[in-house]
Amino acid sequence: MVEEEVEEAPAIGRRERNKQRVRERIYASAISLFAEEGYDQATVDAIADRADVARGTFFNYFQHKEDIINAWEERRGAKLRTRLEESLSSKEMSAALLMRMCLSILAELNEEERDVAPALVTAWVKTGKPILAEPHIAAIFTELVERGQRRGEIRADVEAERVGNLLRDAYLGILFRWSRVGPSGMDIDQELQYVLKICLRGILA
């Protein structure tokens, strides 16, 4: 029996590790400044100063200040997918339960960043990202609705993509309101689950 050779991923060199550390330091410094001073007031110079790097170093990692917001959005999307992945592979969970879980995870992501999330959501809106970004959350909900239709849990005449967009729009509306009133003034998960409850009444088989 011939053993197959397994190619190991090359180890990250010291130079690359240093670059990753600098990028993370700049990112963390920007996030904290956005939360403390607001997106508009936090300058590139202030971010570089807090990260203890030269102004030019900032631009080696991020072309524009709004690229920090892009990175924040990408990280949240990756966390959502990672936390949902195991559940999505389960054949036992109903589409309705998976949608509830998805909304709870979205609520958790915001609650985990409750000290900075309201400021970052405001910055996200100011940079036009909700309009320009790919509707990944809508795609996830669309996928869950289609899954429910294949299993006979959701009516076949329901347009999955429209439901996905509806739930994304509802999530964004609640997220914006949560950001405005402050985390202590509103239970974001409770609000999201209530909207889903109303939606499910109209689409379940």
Task: Explain what you see.
This protein is mainly alpha-helical and 205 residues long. It folds into 2 domains: 14-63, Arc Repressor Mutant, subunit A (Orthogonal Bundle); 64-201, Tetracycline Repressor, domain 2 (Orthogonal Bundle), CATH 1.10.357. 72% of the residues lie in helices and 0% in strands. The protein contains 10 helices and no strands. The protein has helices spanning 14-37, 44-51, 55-61, 66-88, 95-112, 117-126, 129-132, 136-150, 160-181, 188-203. Helix 6 (117-126) crosses helix 9 and helix 9 runs antiparallel to helix 10. The longest helix is centred in the first third of the chain and has 24 residues, at 14-37. The chain is elongated, with a radius of gyration of 20 Å. 25% of the residues are buried. The model is unreliable at 1-6 (pLDDT under 50).
